[in-house]
């Protein structure tokens, strides 16, 4: 047998490098196309999800030390068009109940965020699979978690603004960064316009764009098709969220 017939020994294959979640967080914000392609091929979500939930918990605890929930409850009742029909005792009771709901919601914010991530992942996965896309829930959840980080940035910046205030009003709590046009409308007199303007938020749009890119990579569909699905659901959610303010505006 000649030397040419002897195959050269092959070097042992190296295991693929473990994904770096911190590098992926930066990559999603700076170069989402390449990063989401990597996430789609090797999904991971534990570290980024833990960061989101821990920051949500820290933020809720800080806000709880700064906010006067009773005052916010009274402010919320004053914004109700039926407030004039309430007696003083009824208004105070309603304000107390509202304050209690706000307090509970604040402390439960990590749970609510986790539920939002799970629901968004499930709905989008089912929608993409129904339209011929690929992927499983693990990959869909990973894409959703990483695409959520513009909202995390908004939360951190908003928390810095709120912590610098002596007191926090309902309007400031809803839009501390003025990252949308909601600040142009008074929610007490123009609730529908306020809700509509608030829904078109810079950080929300950024997150939606990342979802489009991420699910296109995961489901192996075009970005146009991905945009139709993701943006379509975003519009539906915004329309549903306008029902309450629309009913409030009709009562005035």
Please give a structural write-up.
- By secondary structure, the protein is mainly alpha-helical.
- It has one domain.
- It has 13 helices and no strands.
- The protein is globular and about 65 Å long.
Write the layout of secondary structure elements.
Elements lengths: L20 H10 L1 H10 L4 H21 L2 H10 L9 H20 L1 H22 L6 H11 L1 H15 L6 H5 L16 H9 L2 H18 L3 H19 L1 H8 L2
Low-confidence stretches: 1-7
Instruction: Supply the helix-strand structural class.
Output: mainly alpha
Query: What is the count of distinct domains?
Result: 1
Q: How many helical stretches?
A: 13
State the helicity in percent bands: over 70%
Number of strands: 0
Radius of gyration: 23 Å
> Separation of termini?
96 Å
Order of helices and strands: HHHHHHHHHHHHH
Measured by DSSP, the beta-strand proportion falls in under 5%
Sketch the major β-sheet: none
- Spatial shape: globular
What is the residue-averaged pLDDT? 84
Q: How would you summarize this macromolecular structure in one to three sentences?
A:
The protein has one domain. The protein is built from 13 helices and no strands.
Structural descriptors:
252 residues; mainly alpha; 13 helices; globular; disordered N terminus
């Amino acid at each position: 047998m000649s030397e040419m017939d002897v195959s050269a020994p092959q070097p042992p294959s190296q295991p693929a490098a473990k994904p770096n979640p911190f590098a992926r967080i930066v990559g999603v914000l700076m170069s989402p196309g390449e990063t989401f392609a990597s996430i789609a091929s090797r999904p991971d979500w534990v570290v980024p999800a833990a960061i989101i939930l821990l920051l949500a918990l820290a933020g809720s605890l800080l806000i709880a030390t700064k906010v006067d929930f009773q005052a916010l409850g009274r402010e919320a009742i004053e914004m109700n068009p039926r407030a004039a029909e309430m007696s003083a005792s009824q208004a105070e009771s309603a304000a107390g109940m509202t304050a209690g709901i706000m307090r509970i919601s604040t402390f439960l914010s990590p749970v609510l965020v986790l539920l939002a991530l799970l629901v968004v992942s499930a709905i989008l996965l089912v929608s993409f699979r129904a339209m011929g896309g690929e992927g499983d829930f693990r990959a869909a959840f990973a894409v959703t978690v990483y695409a959520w980080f513009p909202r995390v940035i908004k939360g951190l910046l908003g928390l810095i603004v709120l912590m610098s205030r002596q007191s926090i009003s309902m309007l400031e709590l809803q839009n501390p960064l003025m990252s949308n046009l909601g600040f142009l409308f008074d929610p007490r007199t123009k609730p529908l316009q306020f809700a509509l303007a608030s829904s078109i938020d810079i950080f929300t749009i950024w997150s939606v764009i990342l979802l489009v890119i991420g699910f296109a990579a995961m489901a192996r569909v075009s970005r146009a098709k991905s945009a139709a699905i993701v943006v379509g659901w975003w519009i539906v959610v915004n329309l549903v969220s306008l029902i309450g303010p629309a009913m409030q505006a009709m009562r005035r």
